[in-house]
Amino acid sequence: MSTETTASVSTHILDTSIGRPAEGVAITLSARSGFDAEWAVLGGSATDADGRCKDLPALPEGTTHVRLDFETEAYFSKKQAEAQQDAPRVRDSGAFFPEVAITFAVKPGEHYHVPLLLNPFGYSVYRGS
Asked: How many angstroms separate the Cα of 24 from the Cα of each of 7, 50, 72, 89, 123?
């Protein structure tokens, strides 16, 4: 929830390699108040079965920049292990990007939904609605 003095953030992840939400990806939310300010870790959560993270911490008043850190290596390691149960190992498809850090600017009173489209060898993000 945002107020006139704070911004708010939400995210979700779609694993484009399987066309499904990415469940169980740990996410850490950090914020700072100014380009040269130190980052403050506000907390984190993990994606649910729909790939959504509905309980990220609120941003403090004065936040100007936000960083979302997605821990992708553990997610892809688990997916690879599940896929290997019934099939021989064909290739090492561990995460090329073991983590994804997305940093963006925010303005008070606005909501920022930042979806992550993810696969083992690439990703893209955008400001959603």
From this structure: 25, 10, 10, 23, 17
Residue carrying the six token digits 């064909």: 90
The CATH number linked to 76 is 2.60.40.180
Q: How far apart are CA 31 and CA 73, in angstroms?
A: 23
Domain of 120, in residue numbers: 8-125
DSSP label at residue 9: E
Among candidates 95, 49, 50, which has minimal Cα distance to 73? 95
- Provide the whole-model pTM: 0.86
| Percent of the chain at pLDDT exceeding 70 | 86
Does a structural domain hold residue 2?
A: no
Domain count, the chain: 1
Task: Evaluate if residue 109 carries a pLDDT over 70.
Answer: yes
Residue 92 lies in a domain: yes
Indicate the SS3 state at residue 70. Answer: strand
CA distance 56 to 27: 9
Q: Answer yes or no: is 1 within a domain.
A: no
